[in-house]
Structures are given as structure tokens and as C-alpha cells.
Amino acid sequence: MSHVHAKEECEIVTKEFKFVGISTTAPFPSGFPEAAMKVQQQFEKRMLEVENYVDRQVLCSPYVGNGIVTTYFACLEVTTLEVIPEEMIGFTIPTMQYAKTTCTNKTIVNGYDKIFQWIKDNGYTPKGSDAFHLERFHLDEQAAEEQVDLLIPIH
């Protein structure tokens, strides 16, 4: 059982992200997870249009909200923002420090509970509506559960 526990540990990651994708805005929390799943399905049909991608098997979903509504993106991480397909958005999230953990699409609620507890236990504070939180889904049609990385901006 210890090998599973090790996978669930949290770490600090400092990174800048560039993304190209689409977004949706919905009431929070009542509009989720349905809004998130819908925009991801829409984006999966158009992923092949994105150039300069880092990894086409990793669907990235940065999101930002204010407690009333949340804007949730379905994107690919890219190396440059030179080419942005029609009706998509390209943007850069500046270098930031994140707490990161890995869970699966079926254990995501537990993953969030765990990472926020880890942030608190380690003396950090999660950033609020001024920073993007990030979910990264490792797409695998053969898997019953897909790996998900949760990245929470901290200070």
C-alpha cells in the first residue's frame, strides 16, 4: 500500500504556462462539474487544430473564479502563442509557485481535500480569485481511471 501513498504526496512546482484552448463560464458551484466536462468534450473534438503543443495527451484546464461564477478552460499547453485557431484563446499564466498532487478523475474530490490540507499543514496560503488553479488530465482511452494533476497557486 505504501507505493500508492507515495504517488499521492504533494510537491512544490514553479512554472510559467502558455495555453491555447476554449473556455466556458458557469455559476459556481452549481454549474460544475457539468460545465467542465462539456467544454472538455468540445475541445477534444478540436485539439488537432492546436499547433506547437507540448503534449497532446495532456488536457489542461486552468480555471479562475470569484465564488459566484467560474471560468473554466480546456486547453493544450503550447510552446508559443503564434498560431491560435479561430474561436480559441491563447494566453500565458506568469511564473508562479504551485502545490501539486496527483489523483485520478474518480478521486479528484479527495485530491482537492488532500492538497488544501497539505498547503495548510506546510504553512502556505492558496491564492484566491487573482490566480488560476489548474487541472491536468492525462488522456488514456484504455484506462478506467485517468491520472489528474492538481496545481494550486500558493504564496
Describe this entry's structure for a reader.
InterPro entries: AraC_E-bd (IPR010499), Cass2 (IPR029441), Reg_factor_effector_dom_sf (IPR011256). Residues 8-155 form the AraC effector-binding domain. This is Effector binding domain-containing protein. Pfam families: Cass2 (PF14526). There is one protein chain. Strands 1-3-2-5-6-4 form a six-stranded antiparallel β-barrel. It has 155 residues and is α+β, with helices and mostly antiparallel strands. The longest helix is centred in the C-terminal third of the chain and has 14 residues, at 108-121. The protein is globular. The chain has helices at 2-7, 34-44, 108-121; strands at 11-27, 58-65, 69-77, 89-104, 133-138, 147-153. The chain has a single domain, classed as Alpha-Beta Barrel (Multidrug-efflux Transporter 1 Regulator Bmrr, Chain A).
Protein traits:
155 residues; globular; Multidrug-efflux Transporter 1 Regulator Bmrr, Chain A; disordered N terminus; AraC_E-bd; 41% strand; alpha+beta
Topology record:
Layout: H1 2-7, E1 11-27, H2 34-44, E2 58-65, E3 69-77, E4 89-104, H3 108-121, E5 133-138, E6 147-153
Antiparallel strand pairs: 1-3, 1-4, 2-3, 2-5, 4-6, 5-6
